[in-house]
Write a structure and sequence with these properties.
Elements (H helix, E strand, L loop, with lengths): L1 E3 L32 H11 L10 E2 L8 H22 L10 H4 L9 H17 L3 E5 L5 E5 L1
Parallel strand pairs: 1-2
Antiparallel strand pairs: 3-4
Length: 148
């Protein structure tokens, strides 16, 4: 199966023969600033459960692997853990930039601000769309998100 970016391997300990790698980026882009791409992405990985769990997956990056359903569980659980942390972090109003340390395992450098911001906003929008966060926009047009 062509796994594309959706089914990329995670870690040797979880999938035999696979080294730790990046996960797929799910981002909001300037062309659709109010989109909820994380909802679409989470729904799409559930659709992949119709595929045989023992199929050989050929990801867009890294080594082929078996264990598709295990990987889908890891991806879903990783995003829901990030959402839980982000919701707790937003007890006070927060910008997408301020949420980087909560969402990402490593510090974000200037060269990664765009991709990190897109992913942070995707997670903030998912929570906002479900009524868990509300958006506050200040006079300068800066959005902050706070627990509802």
């Amino acid at each position: 199966m062509d796994g594309g970016d959706r089914a990329r391997p995670l870690a040797r300990a979880q999938l035999p023969g696979v080294r730790r790698k990046n996960t797929s980026n799910v981002s909001v882009y300037p062309t659709e600033p109010y989109a909820d791409p994380l909802a679409d992405w989470l729904e799409s990985i559930e659709t992949l459960r119709a595929v045989d769990k023992d199929i050989l997956v050929l990801p867009a990056h890294n080594e082929p692997f078996k264990g598709l359903h295990i990987r889908l569980d890891q991806l879903r659980d990783d995003h829901h853990a990030k959402l839980d942390k982000l919701l707790a972090f937003c007890a006070e109003p927060r910008t997408a930039f301020e949420s980087f340390a909560t969402l990402f395992r490593k510090p974000i450098g200037e060269g990664d601000y765009g991709i990190a911001t897109g992913e942070a906003v995707a997670h903030l929008h998912w929570l906002e769309e479900r009524g868990k966060l509300r958006r506050m926009t200040d006079a300068a047009g800066v959005d902050r998100f706070v627990a509802a």
